[in-house]
């Protein structure tokens, strides 16, 4: 075998859109999509397995607290705050490349404000609040530029 093939070169300086990103669908579910338990620990598991984009389905919960679950099913509900705290704890243990929160938003304005508050409180400086205003994907930051950052897509 060619010894040159043993070395892996990872160029992480290209715009983010140049990469395939390991993503998780219905990340919070521990089993099937209709009846299973929602668990914050599932985020810890997938982030440590190398996933860099996780899904968070947000719905209005009791007492003004947004919850995460698979809507219109019998899956259990977990608090958005617990999900955010778990992501914060495990996001960068295995690698420093950015984590994308893919938020599916079904919340009222009041609970959306609560989600925004938790994102700022829990992630602090890790939360990337820079706005991408250009329509040119070549202008996107690179994974290298975004190391240690949490990005939000809604």
From TrEMBL:
Pfam families for the chain: PI-PLC-X
SMART domains, sorted: PLCXc (SM00148)
Coiled-coil residue spans: none
CC per GO annotation: cytoplasm
Biological process, per Gene Ontology: lipid catabolic process; phosphatidylinositol metabolic process; phosphatidylinositol-mediated signaling; release of sequestered calcium ion into cytosol
InterPro entries noted in UniProt: PI-PLC_fam, PLC-like_Pdiesterase_TIM-brl, PLipase_C_PInositol-sp_X_dom
UniProt domain Phosphatidylinositol-specific phospholipase C X: residue ranges: 10-154
Keywords for the protein's UniProt record, in alphabetical order: Hydrolase, Lipid degradation, Lipid metabolism
GO MF term (any one): phosphatidylinositol-4,5-bisphosphate phospholipase C activity
EC code: 3.1.4.11
EC class of the enzyme, as a word: hydrolase
Catalytic reaction list: a 1,2-diacyl-sn-glycero-3-phospho-(1D-myo-inositol-4,5-bisphosphate) + H2O = 1D-myo-inositol 1,4,5-trisphosphate + a 1,2-diacyl-sn-glycerol + H(+)
Domain of life where this protein originates: Eukaryota
PANTHER family in the record: 1-PHOSPHATIDYLINOSITOL 4,5-BISPHOSPHATE PHOSPHODIESTERASE ETA-1 (PTHR10336:SF51), PHOSPHOINOSITIDE-SPECIFIC PHOSPHOLIPASE C FAMILY PROTEIN (PTHR10336)
Protein name: Phosphoinositide phospholipase C
Naturally occurring in which organism (per UniProt): Prunella himalayana
């Amino acid at each position: 075998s060619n010894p040159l093939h043993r070395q892996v070169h990872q160029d992480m300086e290209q715009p983010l859109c140049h990469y395939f990103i390991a993503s998780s669908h219905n990340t919070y579910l521990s089993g099937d999509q209709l009846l299973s338990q929602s668990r914050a620990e599932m985020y810890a598991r997938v982030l440590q397995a190398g996933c860099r984009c996780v899904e968070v389905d947000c719905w209005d919960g009791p007492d003004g607290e947004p919850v995460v679950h698979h809507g219109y099913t019998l899956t259990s509900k977990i608090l958005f705050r617990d999900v955010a705290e778990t992501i914060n704890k495990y996001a960068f243990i295995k690698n420093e490349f950015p984590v994308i929160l893919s938020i599916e938003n079904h919340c009222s304005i009041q609970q959306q404000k609560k989600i925004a508050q938790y994102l700022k409180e829990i992630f602090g400086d890790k939360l990337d609040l820079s706005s991408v205003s250009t329509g040119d994907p070549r202008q996107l930051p690179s994974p290298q530029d975004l190391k240690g950052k949490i990005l939000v897509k809604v």
